Amino acid sequence: MPEINEAQVKLALAAAKNMFAATDARRRFLTPQADLYERSRILRTNRRAVGDLFTSFLTKAGFEFDKFDKIREQSQTELRRILEETKAESAKQSSSLKDALRYEVDSLRKAIEHLEDISLPHFPKPIVLASPFLIWTHSYPSGETPAETQHIVLDDSHIEPWNSWAKARLASEKTGAHNEWLSFYFIWENPRDSAEALSVDTYLMLNGACFVSTDMGFGPPLVHKEMNLGVNAELVLWEWWNQPPTYRYLPSEDVASLYVRQHWYEWFGDFKHQNVFGNYNRSYKLFLIPPHGVAVFEVAFTISYYDGYSGLGYCSVDFSDFGWQIMCPAVVISRYPSP
Asked: How do residues 220-234 score in pLDDT, each as one tens digit?
């Protein structure tokens, strides 16, 4: 097995990041990043100008902004209180759900170990990568902003065979579109002098909660208040024999999707909440690795959120508190049977 350290992985992935983002943008039918960012900048400038005119009009009309701001602050405090109460209610089940996921992991491990003990002609035994060599949080360009600041927080992580997990959270009121990733990286080298065709199975076990809301009060004229949040399970197969690494990308699986939207003239804010629990299996068929080629398997928990550039949306993704966590127990590689 080749020696690949954390610094090398991050350097190589950084070199491949823009290529990945550009391909992902095309996949999502987005216009080129720079062009879309310029349009967004012009729209935000125009919206601020209209907002200033509207504020000026309300001031001349005698609108009491001080009282309005106090009511607005009270409303936001109430929304945060509701969020905390909702989280506390969800937390009551977190320990039992964590135990249920642990049971699934143990059942999966025993099933695979049983397969490893069975000798069948022409059917190679599965290869189990039971520990990632790296758990890492990072951001990808969203396709709408050329550069981003990472907002996901990795509170804790643990690497152990069949028991690798991370605790992560995100709470953001940042304007714009953002893509945040928490990834488990596994590595494998083809030991043969011939190419290998593989089937790759991964497992992402999730236990947590998501929350979105919009601000109370009038927004800028003609600007809707909204927050769109998506949580997904991803599998990226990095062809490490190329530098910078190229990749095979499997379309993501939806884990959670929350959206709130209000017209700019609607007074009260809105919110939605969703608990997330389950085992998400991502697999890729016919992954071809050249002789002695090295592959890196990235199993990722991703968060995408967008507030329409209004600055009036809020989202919270919590897989850190209580018994909540993100677990990736293993990557299982199967060789195709020989003729």
From this structure: 555 567 788 999 999
For residue 31, the 8-state DSSP code is: P
Mark out the alpha helices in the chain (DSSP H runs).
6-27, 33-60, 65-91, 94-117
- Percentages helix, strand, coil for the chain, rounded to the nearest 5? 30, 40, 30
Helix H, strand E, coil C: the string for 140-165 is ECCCCCCCCCCCCEEEEEECCCCCCE
Question: What value does the mean pLDDT of the chain take?
Answer: 78
pTM assigned to the model: 0.79
Distances (CA, A) of 234 to 219, 253, 282, 293: 35, 7, 7, 23
Q: Using DSSP, state whether 260 is helix, strand or coil.
A: strand
Using alpha carbons, select from 199, 179, 206 the residue that is nearest to residue 280.
Answer: 206
- pLDDT single digits (tens) 53-75: 666 766 777 777 677 777 767 77
Q: 């902004």: which residue's tokens? A: 65
Instruction: List phi, psi (to 5°) of 177.
Output: -115, 140
Sheet (strand 294-306) strand order:
134-140, 177-189, 294-306, 225-239, 246-262
Q: Taking the CA of residue 266 as centre, how many other CA atoms within 13 Å lie in the half-sphere pointing to its CB?
A: 14
Q: Which token pair is 112? A: 């695979």
H or E stretch at 339: none
- Cα separations in angstroms, 296 against 59, 69, 82, 162, 194: 59, 51, 42, 18, 19
Other CB atoms within a 10 A radius of the CB of residue 57 amount to 11
Cα distance between residue 331 and residue 297, in whole Å: 8
| Local structure of residue 123 (DSSP, 8 states) | B
